[in-house]
UniProtKB/TrEMBL annotation:
Lineage, opening ranks: Bacteria, Pseudomonadati, Pseudomonadota, Gammaproteobacteria, Oceanospirillales
Entry keyword Chaperone: yes
Primary site of residence: cytoplasm
Annotated protein name in UniProt: Protein-export protein SecB
Encoding gene (name): secB
Keywords noted in UniProt: Chaperone, Cytoplasm, Protein transport, Translocation, Transport
Homology family: Belongs to the SecB family.
HAMAP family linked to this entry: SecB
Pfam families reported for this sequence: SecB (PF02556)
Length: 162
């Protein structure tokens, strides 16, 4: 009898906690090569600058949009001229039930971006190749560490305002 109650309680927990990826999509995309074709006549000596950010929004009951924004600006290391600028906002819709507070925040701030980043990475590489530049293979990103740093900055900020 106790075993059946325990199994029923576990079944309820499993039903309550749900995580489902509904859709992955490109929200915004841009590629600029303002110094073409001159940039192709010079030796390619790139200086790479990559910015990365994430944000999430609740768009319905238990439905969340998470966006990973990647901006890659490549300049000529000697002249400083822009070779290209590639930017993408990779979005995803996630249905998440059974999580609240810090657990939900962690899932939206670290786990979901980990799911989306490979798609953003592939898209940036494809844009750069279509622009006739050498491939730009972005390194994997540790969104867990980024999330932890964000939480630490928030904690330090709240300590200084008290």
């Amino acid at each position: 009898m106790a075993e059946e109650n325990n199994q029923a309680a576990q079944g309820q927990d499993q039903q309550q906690l749900q995580f489902a990826l509904q859709r992955i999509y490109v929200k915004d995309i841009s590629f600029e090569s303002p110094n073409s074709p001159k940039v192709f006549q010079e030796a390619f000596k790139p200086k790479v600058n990559v910015d990365l950010g994430t944000h999430s929004t609740q768009v319905g009951e238990d439905l969340y949009e998470v966006v990973v924004k990647v901006t890659a600006q490549i300049n000529h290391s000697e002249t400083g001229n822009t070779c290209f600028l590639a930017e993408i906002e990779q979005g995803g819709l996630f249905r998440i039930t059974g999580l609240q507070g810090d657990q939900l925040d962690h899932t939206l701030g670290a786990f979901c971006p980990n799911v989306l980043f490979p798609y953003a990475r592939e898209c940036i590489d494809n844009l750069v190749s279509r622009g006739s530049f050498p491939p730009l293979m972005l390194a994997p990103v540790n969104f867990e560490a980024m999330y932890a740093q964000k939480k630490q900055r928030q904690a330090e900020g709240s300590e200084t305002t008290q």
